[in-house]
Structure formats: structure tokens, C-alpha cells
Amino acid sequence: MKQLTEIEVRKIQMGMVSFIDDICRKNNIEYSLGGGSLLGSIRHKGFIPWDDDIDIMLKRSEYEKLLQVIKTSENIAPFQLLHYTTEKTLVPFVKLYNNKTIVKSLFSNTQPDLGVFVDIFPMDALPKDENERKNFQLACREAAILLESDSFPYYAWGPNLAVFLAKLVLRFPQFLRAKGKWQEIAIALDAEMQKYENLDEKYIGFVPSYYGLKECFENAVFLEYEDVQFEDLTLRKIKNHGAYLSQLYGDYMQLPPENKRVNHDHYKWYWKEGK
Question: Which DSSP string corresponds to 203-253?
Fold first, then answer.
């Protein structure tokens, strides 16, 4: 198989996020770039130079609309949806991927046969009470870890061999609990994440986040949206990006030290044979 260059990977990702943006605009679905993609749009007008993925985020109601539109679209090839209702998944969110590509990675939780992807995260309501909010987030995080643990050795994902080997041993009991139960766990976790959705809650976030309550924001941050430049595309972002980015990254306009400028170099992307 022929390995993709960084330029080819980014071109594929840009095609996918453009496809998502087009669907959202045509169907009045509001979304925002998220995480490092939102930071990149503000600080670099596109990709962070050492970053190599694209994240978008939507409030739960908008997320479900987007999911339904994509699932019922007649022809989205070469794109394919990774969600527990369409195929086996080890993550509590959606990935849209290019099925003419494939990833090879020893230390990643990326699933076999998955291609170059864009991550699509639901932002769910969290309870007002701080202790309840903390316990809710921790419970969902533990369930997400259990979901990851369904497949050996992918539950041991990490940035290097040392982390991989440690997780391989420490999470093996969870693998035994989860083995063969991925769909049952995914359905239960998705429902649990929406536990506070119909209540008048003040906070919102990606509940099972590795960042914990650092990725829990006041609802007001997600009320208004606007266009933003990302490379040569015009995409969408939350208007109050400052509150979001400051909470996640602190002084987000300041470049990190060079030794912190790392990407997912454990991912190796290839064209599938006969693409």
C-alpha cells in the first residue's frame, strides 16, 4: 500500500469537513470547529502546523440531526459513517472517514480498517450541582474506557510503547468484562450522556472527555455562531471562542514550547489497494 503524504491527508480531511459544512448549511444545522481545530482557525487561520486532525462539535439536538441526514443520504461515497448504529465502534462519538484509505497504528485506539477521519462530538447537558456534575462526568468517562476495552489490543492505545504496554496489563480485566459487548455498552453510554438533556441545565460539554470538567462550559458559550476561515474554507465556530479556548488552553494565542508541539505521529495513513 502507498503511504499518504501529510498534504494528501489534509486534503482528504478538508474534503470531509467541507462535505459536513455543506450538509449543515443546507439543513440549518449549527456546528462549530472544536478543540485544536478551533484553536487553529483562530491562531493560524487553519491547521495548527503540528496538528493533523479535524474536530467539530454540536449541541446534542444538532448532532442527532446531522447524524440522521448523513445516515439517510443516498450516496456519500467515499465517505463512511462510524457510529454504533452503523458498524462496530470503540468511541462514544461519530467519525466520518474516507473508506479508500486505511490507518496502521500499533499504539492507537483507532480501529482496524478505519480511514482518514473527522471527529464529530456531541455536546450534552450537565447538572448544575458541582459534585453531581463531577460524578456524572466520571461515570461516563469510565463507561467510555469500558467501551474502548472491547477490542484487544486497541484498548491499550497510547502515544508510545511504554504507555501501550502498561495499559495492556492494567486494562486487561476490563477487556475481559467488555469483550463482545461493545454495542450494549455503546447504547447504554449514549443514553446516559443524554440524561440531563431535557432539563434546564446551565452547563454543556463532551461528557466522557479526557479533559474532565475542563471541557464543561456554560450554555451561553454555545448560543451564537459565526463563519471562520480555515485554510481556504469558510466553516463555522462558536462566537464566544475566547471563553472556550481559554478554559481548555489558557493563553491560547501563545505558542507552546517546541517540545510540546506534537502530533499523532503514531498514525500512518495509506491508500487502500485498488482504490
Answer: EEE-TT-TTGGGGEEEGGGGS-EEEEEETTEEEEEETTHHHHHHHHHSSTT
Residues composing the chain: 275
73 phi-psi bin (left φ>0, alpha ψ -120 to 50, beta other) = beta
Distance CA 57, CA 123 (A): 7
Q: Judge residue 100's burial from the number of C-beta atoms within 10 Å of its C-beta, 0-12 exposed, 13-18 middle, 19 or more buried.
A: middle
- Counted domains in the chain: 1
- Dump pLDDT digits (tens) for 173-204: 888 888 889 999 999 999 999 999 988 889 99
| Rg, the chain, Cα only | 18
Domain membership of residue 268 (yes or no) is no
Does residue 48 register a pLDDT over 90? yes
Assess if residue 130 is contained within a domain: yes
Residue numbers of the domain that contains 27? 6-253
User: Quick check: is 270 in a domain?
Assistant: no
In a domain, 222, yes or no: yes
d(CA 190, CA 29) in angstroms, rounded, equals 20
Give the pLDDT band of residue 170 (cuts 50, 70, 90): confident
* pLDDT tens-digit series, residues 146-166: 998 887 777 777 667 788 888
Query: Which SS3 state, helix, strand or coil, does residue 265 take?
Result: coil
What residues have CB less than 8 Å from 178, skipping those under 6 apart?
146, 147, 149, 150, 155, 185
